């Protein structure tokens, strides 16, 4: 609980106090809490999804996974579902605690759209995680550093702590390739009173793009995973462990 | 029992002779540098040292510019920016020293051999932090240069109090090393969640040390935590030495002179130094007793 909930909450609180120090409008506090809760999903995808096959390789389990009578996609899907449930609970706890601590008012305009946005964002995000996992199949120690490298830039470009609309249009559009960018933007529009005014694109358009991203990432993950598996077997990387 | 206690609290045994100190520190610093820098080509290493810190700083810059409409002249901006830049040392040095335990025990599985080698363990761990200090220094320098070049951070090189700056930096790095040693000791004792303890502590101190906002913004009941942390005074001294008028624009520590802040920093560094020696020695003793020195919890 301490590491999964209290620690992210401390980071969220730091950004909330920055906004308070510079006299930001109240709604930004809500934006930060929601962004802070969603970081849990990005961390989960990065460290427990993308890097998972790298960890398994380091521990010597990867060859067993490949030999097992099931597809790698099925294993990753199981991991995704397990990770998603646990991370959703963490994100919920952060949201509830953050909302209580900072007295954040919510005004949900459409529950079904909110559910749809969240579901699509998660399908696309974990599809992206599977896609990355296939790349990480080939990597050794670099996987750790690449995951480390991908944290802060994504926090920045996906607008975890501020509305993505604040960035240049083309920067925001490019960042939309990461499903959390549009997912977060749409969710903020749907749950905060001033969210729509600070939104990047309209919610229906964001839902449409997220649906496309979901299909693209999951399909691409399936083919790339099969390709990388063949490649890594051919190159003898499956059992490789560089310490 | 008395014999054991006297072993734990025999602080004299914590101070190495000059030869052991030099050997342990020099070899550990070289080893640390090899580990930190040999995993990739210099180009990727440079990207890793630049993109990550600049992205962290850019989040704060964007947050600030959205609210202020791009008014970078306000004193709060350099306060936030410089505090965040120098805070990179906290994450790198303090966490780096405790990570040496995780690396050696879990990853390379060499910690038991380190304990058999004729080295002084606390000195070895601090030596391992040197590489992190160098990487952090590059990141801090680049972040500040970026701020000066593109974000109107006004640093007048002629007006900088260089003596105070380097003295504060030196004492601060020692202080962070001592805090890292405490974390290293705790890491020795833990089986679970050891990966997060450094980041967790750095994250908590980020909130309480006035790194990115004046302590007055914190609720009154949380402020005392910031006041007992040496990092609070260290960051204030660094800010004052670089942009004196800006740092003193905020009331939290305005009542203290530079000399007073320096004395507080030195005093707290000594306190943390003694504390780190006792804590590390005790944790080390307990870890030996419980057979945790070569424990592997699956890296």
Give an overview of the whole structure.
The complex is a heterodimer of chains A (243) and B (299). Chain A is 75% helix and 0% strand. By secondary structure, chain A is an all-alpha fold. Chain A has 10 helices and no strands. With 299 residues, chain B is mostly helical. Chain B is 74% helix and 0% strand. Chain B contains 11 helices and no strands. In chain B, helix 7 runs antiparallel to helix 10 and helix 7 packs parallel to helix 11. The model of chain B has no long low-confidence stretch (mean pLDDT 85). Chains A and B meet through helix 1 and helix 7 of A and helix 3, helix 4 and helix 8 of B.
Keywords:
heterodimer; A: 243 residues; mainly alpha; 10 helices; 75% helix; 0% strand; globular; B: 299 residues; 74% helix
Give the overall pLDDT of chain A as a whole number: 86
Strand content of chain A: under 5%
Q: State the helix count of chain A.
A: 10
Rg over CA atoms of chain B: 20 Å
Instruction: Give the helices and strands of chain A as they follow along the chain.
Output: HHHHHHHHHH
Tally the beta strands of chain B. 0
Structural class of chain B: mainly alpha
Q: Helicity of chain B, in percent?
A: over 70%
Oligomer: heterodimer
Distance between the termini of chain A: 31 Å
Mean pLDDT of chain B: 85
**Which ranges of chain A are low-confidence, i.e. pLDDT below 50, for 5 or more consecutive residues?**
none
